Amino acid sequence: MAESELSEAGPSNQDSQEERENQNVYLRRQVKLAVTLSVCINLVLFFVKGSAWLMSNSYAVFSSLVDSTVDLINQLVLFVAERDMAKPSVRFPAGKTRLEPVAIIVNAVLMCTLSLNVIRVASEGLFDGIFGDEKPELEVTMATKAILISATALKIGLFILCNRLRKVSGTAMALAEDHRNDVMSNVTAITTAVIAFHCPNVWWMDPAGALVISAYIIWCWVNVGKEQARFVVGETADDELIERIKIMANTHHASMQLDQIRVYHIGRHYLVELEVVMPPQTTLLLVHDISLDLQKKVEQVPDVERAFVHVDYETRDHKEHKEPRLL
Fold first, then answer.
1. 206 and 89 within one domain
2. Do the Cβ atoms of 246 and 261 come closer than 8 Å?
3. Looking at the structure, do residues 126 and 245 belong to the same domain, yes or no?
4. Per-residue CA distances from 64 to 44, 132, 152, 171 (Å)
5. Is residue 142 one of the residues assigned to a domain?
6. 3-class DSSP state for residue 306?
7. Which one of 206, 233, 260 terminates a domain?
8. Residues 50, 157: one domain?
9. Whether 40 contacts 47, CB under 8 Å
10. Residue 1 pLDDT
11. Closest CA to 63 of 122, 110, 107, 129
12. Which DSSP category does 325 fall into?
C-alpha cells in the first residue's frame, strides 16, 4: 500500500472510530441509567417486600424477598464494578473490563448459595406440615397482593430497559436476568400464596412455590456463571466472527497473506491475534503502516477490544508460543 493510499484511508478510519466512540458513550450512559434505576427501585422493593412477608408469613413471599435482597447486593456490586472499570489505572495497562464478568460470577455464586438456603427452610416447612402438626398459617391480605403486583410491574419495566442493552453490556445482561427472575418469583409467590391462603387443604402450595422459585433462580444463575467463566478463561469466538476477520485480513493488501488467526474472549470482548506474511523485500516503513492499518481496522469490529498483528516473511509450521500451562 502506498503512503497516499494510507493517508486517504486515514480520515475515513478516524471518522468511523469517532462515530463508534460516540455510540459507546451513549450506550455507557444507558447502562449507567439502567444500573442506577435498578439499585434505587430494588432498595424500595426490599423494604416493601419485607413488609409483605411479615404480613403474610409466606414461604413463597420469603423466597421472593430473598431474591430481591440478593438482587440489591448484586446490583450494588455491578454498580461499583461499572464505576471502577471506567477509571484508568497504570496498574492495569490493558484496562479493567474483565472486572465485569468476575463481578457477575461472584453474584451467581451468592445467588445460588442463598437460594439453596431458601430451599432448606421451605423443605423444613413442608416436612413439618406433612409429618407434624405445624402447618403454616398464612395471611394474604389485599395489601400483600397489591405490593407484589406493583413490584412485578416495576420489575417488568426494568427488565425491558436492561434487556435492550444485554448485547452491549454484561452488566445490563446480568441486570436483565435479575429482573426476569424477580418477575417469575413474584408471579409464583402471588399465585402459590393466594391459592394456599384461600384453599387451606393445599397449604403445601406455598412452600412448594418457594422451592420452585429457588430452583429456577439456581438454574438461571448457574448458566450465567458458566458462560461468564468461559469468557474469563478465554473461549474462542464463534465461526462467523472469525470468518469475518479472516476475510478482512486476506483482502487488506495485495502483498499480505494471512497465516494464522486466533480470536478469543478476554472477558465479554475479544482479543484478536493475526499472523500474516509479507514479501521479505518489503520496506519496514510499509510493513509497519500496512499492519497498523489492519490492526485499527480489526479493532473497529464490534466487541473486538484489542488486535495484534505479527508480520513474518514466510509461513511457519511450528507454534511460535509455548504451550499454556501453570507449571
1. yes
2. yes
3. no
4. 14, 26, 11, 22
5. yes
6. strand
7. 233
8. yes
9. no
10. 44
11. 122
12. -
Instruction: Cell 469475518: give the residue.
Output: 244
**Helix/strand/coil for 10:** helix
Question: Per residue in 171-183, pLDDT tens?
Answer: 787 788 778 877 8
In terms of Cα–Cα distance, which of 125, 265, 276, 119 is closest to 196?
125
10 grid coordinates:
486515514
Residue 319 lies in a domain: no
Domain that holds residue 100: 3-233
pLDDT band at 16 (very low <50, low <70, confident <90, very high): low
Please check whether residues 212 and 252 belong to one and the same domain.
no
Is 136 among the domain residues?
yes
Instruction: Determine, yes or no, domain membership for 321.
Output: no
HEC-encoded secondary structure of 289-304: HHHHHHHHHHHCCCCE
Q: Are residues 270 and 218 in the same domain?
A: no
Strand ranges in the chain using DSSP code E only, listed in sequence order: 257-266, 269-277, 304-312
Residue 5: the pLDDT is 45
Predicted pLDDT at 220: 85
Task: State the pLDDT at residue 272.
Answer: 96
The reply to whether 219 and 256 lie within a common domain is no
pTM of the full structure: 0.71
- Residue 272 pairs with which residues in a beta bridge? 263, 307
